[in-house]
Give the backbone structure.
Amino acid sequence: MGFSLSDTVVAEGTEMRLEYKHHLEGNFCIAGEGEVVDLQTGTVHLLRPGSLYALDSNDAHIIRATRGDLRVVCVFNPPLVGDEVHRADGSYGPAHDEAAP
């Protein structure tokens, strides 16, 4: 269908550094409160139920849960296919990508 859909939960008091170098993503917060930090600009965007944000330039970012577990529904294009790996630098990509650290 050209996209994949993921239900992501970030536990209260934790954060994740992420960068989808091969995917664009749209995100919809359905529970909890938190923030997403654009690592290029340092801009912080608050998240709460009903918040929608897009990472349309393969943006490196931090997502953190500040009040309750943060639950975000994420749409990826192209779709995640299951062989991507989470790298030490926060990026995701194909397991066979030779450029992976």
User: Anything to note?
Assistant: Residues 14 and 64 are 6 Å apart (CA to CA).
